[in-house]
């Protein structure tokens, strides 16, 4: 039960941007009521970054910060401090994964900037370095492998998917709002991996308006067979909270019940969670509290029989059809 966090994340900040320091401040203020061990991360080294990203990407963002920062693309900003903060955020994911490797249980890196949109060569979608991919490659250096990633941010984690797209030892499952209706516009069912990694990327595009019941219905039918057959040594959660009904950036209608369910679902596994999105501060704080309490076993989902809408049942049928040769879904 370890939270990895540094108040230095606040140095990456732009007041009127939705991805600002108030996010982690709100989460930590709420989590402090729980009996949690909070540890400070160490910065990732350039070598850690280069296990995932290209030298040109590293040099570019470093230089960009040295020149004072600004916008890397339409929505991704950097300040003069952001390169150092991004190294610290990647280091937070590395530290969380080290804690779980050594002590078991779970650890959660409450870090900014987020990471799951960052590709090998490019910062995008508020993300500079891919924090979780960097932690995964660091664990591999230590001899650990075979990981399941579950990304429940409302946006498709195109960067993480892309980095492991041809890799059969990293299974990436993302549940997100249908990319026909939301950034980044990719993450369809037929994007299933490539080469040796074919079948090890799974996208669950959810219709706008889907609620907690829809999410729980479909994930419980998919995660169980995949976990049984893939047998991950560790689970990585890209924990975004922007599928919440009050979030300003998307149109999914999940509430705290889903975050309680997902925390409970993984509470007995070795879990490394990293913070991704979530932009309504109150919803973000409440959802994080439910998520962490359920990982601790202090909270359980309401055990109603869950029902899914017909469009969600249709998404499930299409996934089942496509993946039948890889998993007994
Ligand atoms: Zn997001």
UniProtKB/TrEMBL annotation:
GO molecular function: histone deacetylase activity
GO process annotations (BP): epigenetic regulation of gene expression
Organism: Methanothermobacter tenebrarum
Domain Histone deacetylase, residue spans: 17-294
SUPFAM superfamilies: Arginase/deacetylase
Highest taxon, organism lineage: Archaea
A Pfam family per the record: Hist_deacetyl
Record-given protein name: Histone deacetylase family protein
Cross-referenced InterPro entries: HDACs (IPR000286), His_deacetylse_dom (IPR023801), His_deacetylse_dom_sf (IPR037138), Ureohydrolase_dom_sf (IPR023696)
